[in-house]
């Protein structure tokens, strides 16, 4: 397996030579919050798969739901006017669950990048129906991540996610990330930073022309960019700006949905009602690929009265509403609610935050720690004053050190990313902290 992994799979983020020198982990089994690799080593998965395995690796109700659905109906299309029982039930559950955010209908996709793509397309189509075809542009935040499709890559706010794929969508522009550790204003006060970033958004909108902008997209907590937690109130200010200019707001909840931040959505945490929400990842806790784009009543109504764009095949994936995925989603949602994973994310998140602050005191290489619920970023720097980012070798050495200590971490740029399963216990939090401590000590 180790040999054929390098030989047969194209790994876009690990060079074959690197992989031969340092064989990557090949994961063979999972149980609870742990995974076991091909060498039989068991690791606490502090990444929760890829921000998605909220319920851990041995959730029997999801496994049973998948098995039962496979027996009943393994596939039928869910977008060409046909539906299946599970897709209707999950859509109902999602719109009920996200009613406080104003969500009224669900459209199913195959994952997060699809959900973003569908939301961007829906935004343009909405304005076409409304007779405002000039509203085609998109506004997003620097450091944001919205997937790998061309639309998503265009609204991504990190050069690394964009530069090899240009030209991207025209008419996409970015406002500064509301990031206290690094921002163009050198502002460390969160409330003042929120105001400055909101003013920069306003400025860009005025420059572009408000009536040319279809939608603004943001992650309530910017995940892949390094777990950047916007100041309290920023998302609300952004909503007010969108309202003032008639711009649709898309909350990309692919990571933040389903309890990760300690609330059922990042929008709810911020007291904001977006026009659309994009979901994926934890929707099935990683047990089946599935995503959803949710829309509010205003957009649903426009489509109901639509005579202009109706019937165009701009939406619809073969696996939209996949019955097995939807059955997994129904079970995952029920378990997430039953186990009150939002509450556990708050309680364990507090313990994790304390541990991270202590690591920052103990290790000078830690420049900043950021967290919300059970998502956290640890930014490593070679020097605290200059904030120079730690290099790739250091990042790999820290992750390897943590791995030696039995904890799986993810590296993103000069950040260590944590998004453990939400079923985490207090003992698991302590184990994660020990693992990171061991990793950081390894580069001292
Ligand atoms: N949006 C956000 C906020 C994400 O974090 C991701 C994936 N990390 C995506 C979209 C894309 O999701 P997927 O990888 O399922 O296509």
TrEMBL record:
InterPro entries: Aminotrans_3, Aminotrans_3_PPA_site, PyrdxlP-dep_Trfase, PyrdxlP-dep_Trfase_major, PyrdxlP-dep_Trfase_small. CDD domains: OAT_like (cd00610). GO terms for molecular function: pyridoxal phosphate binding; transaminase activity. It comes from Bradyrhizobium retamae. It comes from the Bacteria. Belongs to the class-III pyridoxal-phosphate-dependent aminotransferase family. This is Aminotransferase. Its cofactor is pyridoxal 5'-phosphate. Keywords: Aminotransferase, Pyridoxal phosphate, Transferase. SUPFAM superfamilies: PLP-dependent transferases (SSF53383).
């Amino acid at each position: 397996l180790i040999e054929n992994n390098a030989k047969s799979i194209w790994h876009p983020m690990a060079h074959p030579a690197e992989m031969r020198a340092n064989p990557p982990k090949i994961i063979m089994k999972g149980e609870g919050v742990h995974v076991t690799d091909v060498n039989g080593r068991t690791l606490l998965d502090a990444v929760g798969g890829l921000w998605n395995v909220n319920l851990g690796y041995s959730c029997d109700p999801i496994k049973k739901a998948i098995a039962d659905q496979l027996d009943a109906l393994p596939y039928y299309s869910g977008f060409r006017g046909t539906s299946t029982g599970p897709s209707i039930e999950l859509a109902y559950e999602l719109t009920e669950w996200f009613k406080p955010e104003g969500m009224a209908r669900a459209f199913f996709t195959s994952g997060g990048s699809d959900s973003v793509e569908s939301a961007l397309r829906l935004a343009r189509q909405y304005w076409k129906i409304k007779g405002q075809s000039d509203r085609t542009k998109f506004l997003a935040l620097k450091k944001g991540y919205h997937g790998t499709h061309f639309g998503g890559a265009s609204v991504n706010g990190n050069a690394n996610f964009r530069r090899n794929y240009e030209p991207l969508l025209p008419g996409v522009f970015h406002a500064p990330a509301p990031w206290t550790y690094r921002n163009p204003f050198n502002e460390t006060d969160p409330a003042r930073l929120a105001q400055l970033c909101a003013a920069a958004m306003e400025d860009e909108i005025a420059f572009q022309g408000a009536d040319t902008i279809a939608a603004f997209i943001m992650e309530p907590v910017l995940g892949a960019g390094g777990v950047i937690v916007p100041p309290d109130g920023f998302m609300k200010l952004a909503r007010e700006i969108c309202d003032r200019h008639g711009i649709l707001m898309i909350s990309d909840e692919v990571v933040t949905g389903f309890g990760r931040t300690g609330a059922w959505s990042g929008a709810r945490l911020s007291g904001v009602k977006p026009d659309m929400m994009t979901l994926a990842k934890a929707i099935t806790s990683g047990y089946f690929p599935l995503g959803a784009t949710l829309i509010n009543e205003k957009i649903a109504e426009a489509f109901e009265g639509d005579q202009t764009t109706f019937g165009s095949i701009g939406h619809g994936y073969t696996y939209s509403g996949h019955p097995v995925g939807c059955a997994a989603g129904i079970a995952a949602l029920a378990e997430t609610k039953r186990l009150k994973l939002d509450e556990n994310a708050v309680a364990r998140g507090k313990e994790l935050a304390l541990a991270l602050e202590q690591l920052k005191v103990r290790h000078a290489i830690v420049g900043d720690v950021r967290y919300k619920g059970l998502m956290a970023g640890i930014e490593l720097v070679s020097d605290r004053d200059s904030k120079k980012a730690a290099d790739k070798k250091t990042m790999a050495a820290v992750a390897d050190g943590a791995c030696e200590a039995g904890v799986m971490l993810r590296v993103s740029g000069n950040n260590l990313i944590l998004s453990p399963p939400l079923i985490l216990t207090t003992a698991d939090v302590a184990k994660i902290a020990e693992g990171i401590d061991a990793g950081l000590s390894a580069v001292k």
